[in-house]
Design a protein that fits this description.
By secondary structure, this protein is α+β, with helices and mostly antiparallel strands. It has helices at about 10-20, 35-40, 75-80, 80-85, 90-95, 100-105, 110-115, 120-130, 140-145, 215-220, 245-260; strands at about 5, 25-30, 45-50, 60-65, 65-70, 130-135, 140, 145-150, 150, 160-165, 170-175, 185-190, 200-205, 210.
């Protein structure tokens, strides 16, 4: 690790002011992305701004047809929260199969979506549910937020403050986990809106990060059942191919995980 300065601001405004003074500084929440790359000397921020204990960034709110999860809320809190279980149980389930107890104790929803890591779980939920990402500067629709592998619409110094999810009529999540890391070799989140539209998003499959799956969306809109996907065959173009599986394997996993998510 290179030498760095550690800050622990008590408010969003204080955090934003700190990063405005230092373009080489980085925000830190759970630390599951930033700390490993710093330890490997792949990143050397001049300062680390710890936002994990800012009160305004922690908590869950259920209001009408919207569930809002603040950015520094830990996975464990989300997984065990009564409002999450009541409004969108698929999010509670997604969190329960994410990482291990130590990861769930420290990881945060804001940190999970900020990088568009191709194997992260939460981007699939955010995109499939058509969530809105709120920052200290603006609100960004999920369809406009994820821009490609490790790339989002966030501007330099912009801080995610919360994610607001419209409550769906139905939703589910299933993933094939790597047995050691528990990252998603492929994970699929399916959601049916109260208006009858269907959105499906897959993580761990595409070379560009999280992606919508229109073929599956169309089939499930016509018939919300696992059997409706039996004849679907997705192309392997743009899918991840690595030591864990070929592009064709990932394409088939998207279909299989979607069927399991529907139940």
């Amino acid at each position: 690790m290179y030498e760095t300065t550690y800050h622990r601001p008590s408010s969003v405004d204080e955090a934003a002011a700190l990063i405005a003074k230092d373009s080489e500084a980085k925000y830190l929440a759970g630390g599951h992305t930033l700390i490993p790359v710093m330890k490997a000397r792949l990143a050397s921020p001049t300062a680390v701004i710890d936002i994990g204990r800012i009160p305004a960034l922690i908590g869950v709110e259920l209001s009408g047809d919207t569930l809002t999860i603040k950015a520094a809320t830990t996975y464990h809190t989300i997984m065990t929260n009564a409002d999450v279980k009541k409004a969108i149980p698929a999010i509670a389930h997604l969190t329960s199969v994410l990482g291990d107890p130590m990861v769930r104790a420290r990881g945060t929803i804001g940190g999970s979506i900020a990088n568009n890591d191709p194997a992260a779980d939460y981007p699939a939920a955010v995109l499939a549910l058509g969530a809105t990402i709120k920052t200290n500067k603006r609100s960004i629709a999920a369809d406009d937020f994820f821009k490609g592998l490790f790339t989002t619409a966030l501007q330099d110094g912009e801080l995610i403050t919360a994610v607001s999810f419209p409550i769906p009529a139905k939703a589910g999540y299933a993933k094939m986990r790597h047995p050691a890391s528990r990252f998603a070799l492929t994970g699929v989140f399916v959601a049916q809106t109260k208006g009858g539209d269907v959105r499906v998003a897959a993580t761990g499959a595409s070379q560009n990060g999280v992606m919508r799956v229109p073929e599956i969306e169309k089939a499930l809109k016509a018939n919300w059942s696992a059997a409706a996907l039996d004849s679907i065959k997705l192309g392997a173009g743009g899918m991840i191919a690595d030591i864990h599986g070929s592009a064709e394997y990932r394409a088939n996993l998207v279909k299989v995980m979607a069927q399991r998510a529907v139940g």
